[in-house]
Every structure is written in structure tokens, then in C-alpha cells.
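Re: [help] complex structure
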Amino acid sequence: MHISEGILSAPVLFGGAALSIGGLTVALRRLEPQHIPQTALLCAVFFLASFLRVPLGPGSAHLVLCGLMGALLGWGAFIGIFAALLLQGLLFQFGGLTTLGVNTFNMAAPAVFLSALLGRYLSSPNALAANLAAFCIGCIGLLAAALLTAVSLWISGEHFLPVAQALFIAHIPVAVVEGLVTVGCVQFLRKVRPDALPCANQGSEK
Amino acid sequence: MQFETFAFGNSFIHQLDPRIRLVCAVFCAFSIALLHNVLSAAAGLGLGCALVAAAALPPLVVLRRLVPLNLFVLLVWVVLPFSVPGEALCSIGPFGVSLQGFSLALLITLKSNAIILTSLALACTMQVAVLVRAMEALRLPGKFCQVIFFSLRYFQVIHREYRRLSEAMTARAFVPRTNLHTFKTYGYLISMLLVRSLNRGQRVYEAMLCRGYTGSFPALRQFRLVGRDIIFLVFCLVALAGLWAMDIYFYRNSL
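Output below.
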């Protein structure tokens, strides 16, 4: 999902970096000091969760959880995702360091957008609405991220089109799984810690 | 989990100022990423290997770190030589390989590996905490550096928590399969970790306030530039300028 080094062209790398810097600036401005430990802890949980492998047919997929990150952190998802990708790049050489900007934007932008759109339904008294919203945030969040990744590849060169298409199609079943896992997460949070879910006024608060 | 395997060492690179290393890592990575020509990319790979050798990194471990990247590169090799239009190079079965496709795949392979090698030698030869300090010293946003400090500190804690929960699940005969029960269980597992983290985060913040936390961690060690650091920075810039010159020269002569 995260694009590695050396593949994307200059405009994509720098454009993605610029967009991410914009998102990060907004997120950092909205981040209040008392929420720093929590943002960091959520970032660590997501960093760890990305190593979880969920069985999918004959193989397995690893969870990305960018949708859930958007739901819980709002704009803070930019910070959490950027930090998680930076650590993955430095410690395990997953993804890349030049592509941090592009990868962060591809994953965080849909997350923030969907959470602004659907976040209020997560704490709705209607369980079905909450589950549907959770599924959409998880599934569409990942699909949109995969789409943006595919588009980044395609813009870098027409010849990347087959790779881009293959990447997007490969993520469709993973997106469904991710939607279902997000539903599980939201159901649990509604029962145990409902104030973690965003309420009607959005923000990067918990 | 094994972290920071390359961070402890005594080589020339390890003794350089972390800020210089970070700046050079970023310059090298972006410069190599923008090369267009196979020969200059090969020179970039040479630079990467030289830096890894200067940092005295164990070769087998480095090769293992290159595996995730090269799996993706393999995918590129399977697609590009056949999909890029151009003059025919050879054919494998019914599929024709084009020269442009082949050289593009080669370019990507060289560039990606070169960037990872330079990043390993420069950015990964220090503890992440030191790297973040270098970021702070280079004036990156304080709040962001704080987030990374806390993430690092608590990652081990959360990993332990995850192992406990995972063992509890196994003890209750949980076998992951492709069904709704499995997905819901993973959702519950992640949320349980989240809830524990949120509670802990709150306690951590309040405890730190009690101990006089004002939003930044005072540093015991101050960075100081020495002659060696400046020389290395100049060397890096000259090497990268050389790569660029090669690239432009070959592009002009359309090699």
C-alpha cells in the first residue's frame, strides 16, 4: 500500500509532500498539548496493528486502519499516520522516506474527510447507523487510499497503469475486511468508552 | 521486536553529528529519487554501498532489510518490461520485452536500493530518540517531536499488552479464520488496546504535569558541529552534485 522509494516522479513526490505539510500544519495547530500523549499512544497502537495479519481466503492481509484513525483523531490522523509511517520507514524499511509525504496524504486525507462526513453517526443511538458508518469509514477509507495510491503511480508514468490497476483491485477484498474490523472496533468502543468516538463537533480531540 | 539494530556502532558515520546525518540522508534520498538515467543511478547505488561500508553495517542484515523493497521491485519487473512501448529487446515466450521497459525497471531497481542504502547508513545508524532530537534541533515542530517521543516510549508497553491479550485469545481457543467472528474479534482486540492506551495516556499526562512537564523534554546532550561533520557534509553535497552532473550529461547526450 505504501509506495516505496525510487518509483514516483518529482511532481508527485513534491506535490504529495506539500499536501501533507498542509494537512500536518492544520493538525498540529489543532493539537492541544494535553492530547499529545494520547495521539502518540494511538499512533503506537496503529503502528502495532499494522503488523496484525487477518486471514483472507488462502492468504492473509495486514490491516491499515487509516479509516479508524481518522474517526478517532480527526485531523490528528495526519500526525498519527505520518509518525507511524516514519517509524516504519526508519525501523523496518517499509514504505519509503522520500514517499512519506505522498503516502501520508493518500492515507490521511480520505480518513479525515470520511470522519468529518460520517463521524457523528458513530455515536448515534441507532446501532445500525453506527455500524454502517463504521463500515463505510473503514472500507471506503481504505479504497480511497488505494485509489489515491494508484493515481499517484499513474501520474508518475502512463506505463504504471497496469501496476496501479492491480494494486487497486488487490485492495478491494482487504477493504471489505477492514470495514468489518472497523465495525468491530466501533461496537466495542460504543460499549466500553463512548467518549472516544467523535461527537457532533469535530476536532482532533479524543 | 528487534529495534534499532544499526544504531550502536563506532564507525566514522556513527560519530558524525546526527543533524548532519539527517540532512545528508534527506538530500541523498531526494537527489537519487530524481535521477533519470541508469548510469547515474548506478553511481548512486555505489554511493549507497560506500556509505554502508563506511558505517560498518553487517552485510547480511542489510541485505535482509532490502527484501521488502525488492519484493515490490520484483512486481515492477514483471510488469514494466512488457508494458512499456518501445523498441524490442528480446522476447520471453509470446511476450515482447522493450528496451525502454527494461531500462525503466532497471532504473527503479537501482534508485530504490540506493535510497534505502543511504538511508540505512545515515538515518538508521542512530537511535530514533536521537533522530528526533536532531529533528528538534533542525526546528521541526515541537509538538510533532513530542508525539514521536511518546510513541516510542509506549510502543513496547502496548506490544506487551497486545501479547497478553493475544495469549488470552489463544487460551480461549480463538483460531483466526476468514469469518465474521474473526474480524469482529480483531476489532475488539484493537479497541481494547485503544481503550487501555487512552486511559494510560490520560494518566501519563497527569503524572507528567505533576512532575513539571511544560511541553518539551530538556536534553542532556547538546549537539556540536566539528570539522569532521562539515567535511562530510561537503563531501555529500559534492557527490550528489556529481550524480546530478552525470544525469544531465547523459540526458543531454540521450544515453
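The two ends of chain A are 27 Å apart (CA to CA).
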